[in-house]
Please model this.
Amino acid sequence: MKRVGIITYHQANNFGAVLQCYALQEILKRLDFDVKVIDYRHPFTELIYNPIRWDIIKKGLTNPRLLAGYLFKVFPILYKRAQAYNSFRSRFLQCSRSVKSGRKMLQCFDVYLIGSDQMWSLHPTNNIIEPVYFGEFTVPKGSSIQGYGISSNIESLHTIGKKYLTDSAKRFERLSFREEIVRDEVYQMTGIYGEVVVDPTLLLNTEDWNHLITHNPIDEPYLLTYFLSNDTDNEIFRTKVSDFAKQNNLKVVDIFDIAYSPIAFLTAIKYASVVFAASFHATVFSIIFKKKFYAFRSSDGRDIRYINLLHNLGLDKHIVSTANISSLALEDINYAHTDLLLDALRQHSIQYLKTL
Model:
């Protein structure tokens, strides 16, 4: 049985990061691989998701108002979220012992699988290149480094630069990307052509994800919002969202007000009447649970991740501008054609994994 070690952002207290790791682990287990999530601890990830923020506390020593805000508002939320995520990881992820640097990489795997998620984007690592995510570590003789569903953005790729990207790509026995635009840009910069595969969350079907769903805590029909874009972070837009909800007799529920764990995130989407998203994984799970949804365009370029997916699944009309809420309708989506397209993409991606 081939031993596979996954390297990804599993330690981030981020819904999508943890769920895509879980999905990749589960599909590899079904394919009869011996799987572990390599518990690599990136320093910046450890800092920003630690509820005890010593950097804020230090600043608060000379700013009592900042310290009070952190201790009484921010810390309780961060602590509750960290506890929930740690519980999920403990229950559902099969992690190795912790690894602090590439020099101490575990030497017990046949395949080191880097991905999915934004492994080649720089904003998750504080705009610093993390060598481990680019395969810069020693592996045992006969073992390989491979990539699955690596994502990035064009700005990060250009900042990383042609030489480093080319040298990195050559370390990989195989590369695959989550978006065509990223695959094509890497090819233009390095001459190395990878495949395009689906995000791991799409490798599991609705029934698979239903096993994690819990009781719905909201007792009335609701519009669920999950916005990670500056374009949606303003009072005018929020007022339009509220007006849309009132017109359709729905309560507005923001994901961050009710979901502190990956399971709560899944449950919130599962039972929503409609989802408004500026988020890749909120869009993904809206599709998985066959919800009514709209994905909003973003001026920061991060929308390419879900725009690419929706285009491939024939759901382009559900990509909308923040200015178009008044023209939106609460209509059912015929998922029959989408399911056929998704199944073809899923089977192609599973075949890629079978040949690790």
Q: What stands out?
A: The first strand starts at residue 3 and ends at 7.
